[in-house]
Amino acid sequence: MTDCPPRLRGDLSKWLQEVNTGVYVGNVNSRVREAIWQRVCENLKNGRATMVFSANNEQRMDFRVHNTSWKPVDYEGIQLIRRPLPVSSVVEDTLKPGFSKAAKRQMANRKSQASKKRGQSFVIIDLETTGLTPVQDKILEFGAIRVRENQKADTFSRLVSQEKGIPQTVTALTGIDNALVEQEGQPLDAVLPEFLQFVGEDTIVGYNLAFDMRFLQEACRACGIHPPTNRCVDLLSAARRKVFDVPDFKLTTLATRFSLDVSAPHRALGDCHILFSLYEKLNESEPFT
Q1: Which residues touch 203 (CB under 8 Å, ≥6 apart)?
Q2: Whole-prediction pTM value?
Q3: Which value, in Å, is the radius of gyration of the alpha carbons in the chain?
Q4: Using one digit for the tens of pLDDT, what is the confidence trace for 4-40?
Q5: Separation CA 75–CA 114 (nearest Å)
Q6: Cβ atoms within 10 A of the Cβ of 147, count?
Q7: How far apart are CA 260 and CA 264, in angstroms?
């Protein structure tokens, strides 16, 4: 980590060993690890953080990033890091020598308009899960909204049947209990193909999207389906760049900040509707998709 505030450094020292400035190592379970990462994201306002941990995948590891332009991407089940191109390369590639200033402005305007047009069509997704660990826990509910020309065009909502009982903490949060799942739930191998077909090749928009995508990738592996490789836009990252007057970046905090309706239960499709409103608020000043 960089620019770590003393309070957070002391907090991390309760669980991890600081072997060098900003470098922490330790051996904790997945629940503690997720809690530590959430605390880092909530309290590391200006600094950057990268977390690497063991995982049951082909690489035997996974990682998270916070406040950095280096982004993890999935390439056919392998996690890679995408580095931003140097500014000089971008300038040389898009504004060639010999163009007049007016021509350069027109090129920039066309690029901006094209970017806005791409942002008009996308799919918002949200998953409810039985826990925080993709390898151990399962997807409980799929929710999605297809957006066309900045308008809601279609929705998707499915419950997934479970082999094990639903934890009481999840039922308290979502209102989804065992009786509801037994009545309306469908097997994962039936719901997942429908969900992926609904998403198609559109850009995927979500909140803390890396969490949902890890569960989605694990579900695809379990069902023998190729995981999606769609372009992804994380509203959490956009909010961290654009919003500065909130105590934390929980979805409920941002919804309150923008006076969004959060009266509906914490369900996948309901959260997708909140995310669509949040997308519009964050997109007002400067498009980011």
Answers
A1: 118, 119, 121, 122, 123, 230, 231, 232, 233, 289
A2: 0.60
A3: 20
A4: 888 888 888 888 998 888 899 999 888 888 888 888 8
A5: 26
A6: 21
A7: 11
